Amino acid sequence: MTQIQWKLKPYLEENSVSTHKLALEAGISPPNLYTLIRGEGAKNVSRETLAKLIGALRRLTGQPVTPNDLFEVIETPEPELSSVSANLEDTAKALHAAESTVRTEELNAWLQQTSLAVQPLRGKHARS
Predict the structure, then answer these.
(1) pLDDT at 117 over 70
(2) CA–CA separation, 23 vs 41, rounded Å?
(3) Distance set, CA 83 to CA 2, 76, 86, 94, 102 (Å)
(4) 2-75 topology per CATH
C-alpha cells in the first residue's frame, strides 16, 4: 500500500518560515494551508496549489524546492490474507465467549433470585 505524507511542517520549521507567512506568499487561505499541514488532503492537493507552495517557498527561503522536499512516499506491506482471517476467527471466538459469559451470568443471577424467592416457600412446606 502506498501512502503520501506531507513533510511541509518539518520543512517550514527547518527553514524558519511561518505557516501564515507561507499562506500569504502563496495566495492560499491559512485554513486551507493548515489543513494540508495536518496531512489532510495531501493526496488531493492540486498541481496549482503545489506550484504556488513551491514558488512561495523558493521566494521565502531563497533555496530550490522540489515536491520531494514536501512529500514522503511510504510503502507499507499489504496484510496477508491468512493473518486477516486468523484475526477475524479470533475476534469471532472472543465475541462468542463474551456472549456465553453474559448468558451464564444472567442465568446464575436468575437462579439466585429464584432460589431466594423460593426459600420461604420451602420452609413452609418443610414444617407441615
Answers:
(1) no
(2) 16
(3) 20, 16, 5, 16, 29
(4) 434 Repressor (Amino-terminal Domain) (1.10.260)
Q: Hey, where are the domains in the chain? A: 2-75, 80-128
Residue-wise pLDDT tens digits, 97-111: 655 555 566 666 666
On whether the CB atoms of residues 33 and 19 are closer than 8 A, the answer is: yes
Residues written for the chain: 128
Which residues lie across from 21 on neighbouring strands? none
Q: Which three cell numbers stand for residue 107?
A: 442465568
**Average pLDDT rounded to a whole number, residues 61-72:** 86
Q: Mean pLDDT over all residues of the chain?
A: 75
DSSP, res 66? -
Give strand pairing partners of 4.
73
Query: pLDDT per residue over 10-57, tens digit each?
Result: 899 999 999 999 999 999 999 888 888 876 655 677 888 888 989 999
Q: Which residues of 74-107 are buried (b: 16+ CB within 10 A; e: fewer)?
A: eeeeeeeeeeeeeeeeeeeeeeeeeeeeeeeeee
